[in-house]
Structure formats: structure tokens, C-alpha cells
Amino acid sequence: MITFQLNGKPVQIAHAGKTLLQVLRDDFHLTGAKLGCGEGECGACTVLVDGHPVCSCLQAAEMLQGAAITTIEALAQTPEGSEICSALARKGGVQCGFCTPGIVMAWAGRHPDDAPDDALEGNLCRCTGYVKIRTALEQTDCLLPHTDTVSGKADMSLQDGLAYLAQNPDLIPIAGGTDLIVRAGHNLGSLRLFSLDRLNAPELRQVFWEDGNLVIGALMRWQDILHDRIIAHTVPILRDVAYGVGSPQVRNAATIGGNVATASPAGDSLPALVALQARIRLIHPDGTREMPVAEFITGVGRTKRKAGELIVGFVIPAKCIGQPQMFTKVGPRKAQAISKLSLATVLVPDDPARISFAFGAVGPVPMTCPKAHQYLAAQECDKRHFKFAAELAMSEITPIDDMRSTAAYRKAVARNLLIRHCQKIFGHKS
């Protein structure tokens, strides 16, 4: 049985293999959350999980144990929800109404630091054009308190969790699930999932210092990374990555560990971690091991993670902390889009080239272009040499033609990005 709080009352469901949206609509007949895109793009299915807006179409039922779920049916009855709904009605921010419940939920559960456009970037409206919606919401100060996202769920120690996974090798560990559930589609019921929220291991959800290095727990949500002050001051490149990962609803669920484990060539965190020369830390029943993230990713969807191992964190070396850093993601929009290509660059004082960089989405793994790197190590830092290094890099990357872009476009943009990054990192003007 899966037990959780639904609109303030304890409930149970006897089955898994469903999304939270299906549970709400089919089992509890709460139809305020709507199925729109089914991929976390439109926000019509937004509900609050432990006070945070998430896409219920991307939440597996197995992740609900111990959670507190709030839907529009309950929120609309609160003073905060009523005020938001009234403001939208007064200002004409409602037409067909399909998107309205999700907008109310996203605004009520927004991060305190989010501007209106940031808070609503995961909600699509096909009718009003957003002007009236924004005007209405800016007249409300309603903000719900966020509750602890772990205390009610963590019922197992890390070692017990590892033992449980070893005893059940067909179980699939799931953190945010924002990629896994989309890929699973209608076959979600055929998967046996193990929610990593069950692990009582606070270090997996924290940023902390260790021997001068910075360690980022694998279960850090991208929304937390985006707003973390330590990350903003030490590795701002990861803050920039977080902004482009998706909407607040996606970032409230997706984790940095899950992004790496998926090993997508377009995964935004991969080139950034490689450029930071980060090491991935894995744990298994007999101990832990580490390796460079660059070595961990072996191909499209392939890694060196062994059966029974879990990713527990990423170690950022002291030499890269606080250094000039850049991340550029090229896509059809600034956020909530799969990369056509990306480039992460970090100044590394003790590196022969004084620079570390990695491209994303132009090869099966993050591309570090050794020939271009060696050339930069042997030359002066000026625009002429940057251009030649970029030409060398273009001979090393292997972009493809696909639905998002052409190989030729990716190469042309990648060349210009590397030149621009080098100029900015080394302080040169164009």
C-alpha cells in the first residue's frame, strides 16, 4: 500500500504503475489537474507536492509514499487560493479555463525569489496571451509555506536501501523521474520503481565542503541548485545550467544525479560537470568509489554505474571553485528545451591551457576536444589562436542531423561559441 496525504487527509492506494495525475483523476475523481502535453511542458497538471509545484503527469505513484499532495480543489478553498482565483477573474485572466488550475498552483507555490515570468514559465495559455494573467497575479502576495520534502518519506537508511536494491535487482531507482516517466510512456506499469526519496541520507540532498572541495548531493533538486547561495558564489555555471533544465515544476522534481544517470548527449549538467573536472561518487554495499564524470559517461544512455550502485554526489575540485565560468545552451528558447548544443567553459589555473571546456549534444558523450585543448596549451591567448583552436575542435566533434537541428548548424554555432567563451574567459574583447 502507498500512503500519503491528499488535501490534508490520509489516503491509501493499493497499486503502483500510475502517474500522480492518473491517481488523482481516476482514483479520487479530482479533475482540476488536466492532462495536456504529458511531458512536463504545459503545466496544466500542476499540483503541490510538499508545497512545491510539480507536474503530476511526471510523478510516479511509487514516489507518493509519505508525501503531502495539494490540488486546486483544496487550494481554491483557502484564503490564498481564493484570492488568486478572484484576481484572475477580476482582471480577465481566464478564458477557456483549461490552464487556470495549473497557473493558480504554480503561483501559490512559487519560490520567494522568483519573478512572475519565472514562476509561470512552465504554464502555457493558448487564450489570454499572459498579459492579463500577469497583471492579476502581480496584485496578489499569496505565497504558501513550503514543507519538508523528505521527513515523511525517508523510512530507510542508505545501507538498507542498497541491500534492498541488491535483493531486488529488477528494481529501478527513481529520483525525480522527469525523464524516465516520459520514456516509459504507457508502459509505466511494467516497471518496478524504487523511490530514492525513501533514503534517510541528508548528505544526498545537501551542498557541503569536504577537504576544500565542494560536494553536491546527487538528490539535489535543480530548483534548489538554482537558488543555492553557495553554488551561486562558487560554481555559478551550475546555477546557469539549472535555469535551463526546465520549468519550476520540472526543477522541483528533477535532480542533478538523475540528469547524469540518464546520460543523454543533450543533458545540460554533463558538459558543465566535465568542464569543472568534477568526480562522481558512487556507493555500493561494500563501499564507495569515485571517477571523473568524463569517464563515467560511456555513450548514449550508457554509464559505468554497476548493478547495485547508486550515485551519491559530485565532487568539484577546489582549483575550479570561484574561477571564471560560462555555460551557453542553444535551443529554440532559453529554458524548458532540449539542447541543440551547449558549451561549458571554466578557467583552470593549473591546466596547461588554463582552460577546461566541454560541448554537449554534438557527440555521444561530452566532447572535450583534446586536439584543440593541446593547441591552446601551446599558444598565446589571442583571438587568432582561438579561431584556429575552434577549427580544430570542429574536426573533433561529431554532431548529427536530427529533428532539432542539422549537423552543419551545430558545427557553425559550436565554432563561434568556443571563440566567444575563450575571449570572455581570458578577458579578450572581440
List keywords for this structure.
Enolase-like, domain 1, alpha+beta, 3 domains, 18 helices, Uridine Diphospho-n-acetylenolpyruvylglucosamine Reductase, domain 3, five-stranded mixed β-sheet, 430 residues, 17 strands, Ubiquitin-like (UB roll), five-stranded antiparallel β-sheet
3D architecture notes:
The protein is of the alpha+beta class. The chain folds into 3 domains: 200 residues, Ubiquitin-like (UB roll); 120 residues, Uridine Diphospho-n-acetylenolpyruvylglucosamine Reductase, domain 3 (2-Layer Sandwich); 101 residues, 2-Layer Sandwich (Enolase-like, domain 1). Helix content is 33%, strand content 18%. It contains 18 helices and 17 strands. The strands form 5 sheets. A 5-stranded mixed sheet has the order 2-1-5-3-4, sandwiched between helices. Helix 3 crosses helix 4, helix 3 crosses helix 6 and helix 17 runs antiparallel to helix 18. The chain is globular and about 65 Å long.
Mean pLDDT: 92
The end-to-end distance, rounded to whole angstroms, is: 62 Å
| Total number of strands | 17
CATH class of the largest domain: Alpha Beta
Domain FAD-binding PCMH-type: 143-321
Protein name: 2Fe-2S iron-sulfur cluster binding domain-containing protein
InterPro entries: 2Fe-2S-bd, 2Fe-2S-bd_dom_sf, 2Fe-2S_ferredoxin-like_sf, 2Fe-2S_ferredoxin-type, 2Fe2S_fd_BS, Beta-grasp_dom_sf, CO_DH_flav_C, CO_DH_flav_C_dom_sf
Pfam families: CO_deh_flav_C, FAD_binding_5, Fer2, Fer2_2
